[in-house]
Specification:
Helix content is 0%, strand content 50%. With 117 residues, the protein is mostly beta strands. The radius of gyration is 13 Å and the shape is globular.
Length: 117
């Protein structure tokens, strides 16, 4: 199974529940050419050098609120079809995430059923 496509970030264990969707529904996306993008809370980033496969590492550049930000990250497909990963800020925090593949578009939440905590 490949990580290529758009994934809805459904959990970020180190943050309060509503943090990840502060500005828009949180997601991470990987393209065939190794590029991609992500958004959660007030953070957005462009992904570089991700590649293809069931696990990958990448670098990213973007913004955290109004400040420039950059770092690295990784993602790995789990046996249940979800992905676990981490977005690491250069000289700062590490944001763990769980994401599920998006399949259709409804109210900004795409193909995802999230159980309340």
């Amino acid at each position: 199974m490949s990580l290529i496509g758009r994934w809805r970030i459904v959990a970020m264990p180190d943050y309060v529940e509503d943090y990840r969707d502060m500005m828009e529904p949180a997601y991470i996306e990987f393209a065939v050419d190794g590029s991609g993008e992500f958004a959660f809370a007030c953070v957005t980033g462009q992904i570089f050098g991700a590649g293809d496969g069931s696990n990958l590492a990448f670098s990213w550049q973007g913004n955290d609120e109004t400040d420039e930000a950059q770092g690295t990250g990784w993602a790995e497909i789990q046996p249940d079809g979800s992905i676990n990963g981490q977005i690491c800020f250069h000289g700062g925090d590490e944001a763990d995430f769980v994401a599920r593949k998006q399949t259709s578009s409804t109210d900004g939440v795409i193909g995802v059923s999230v159980e309340p905590n």
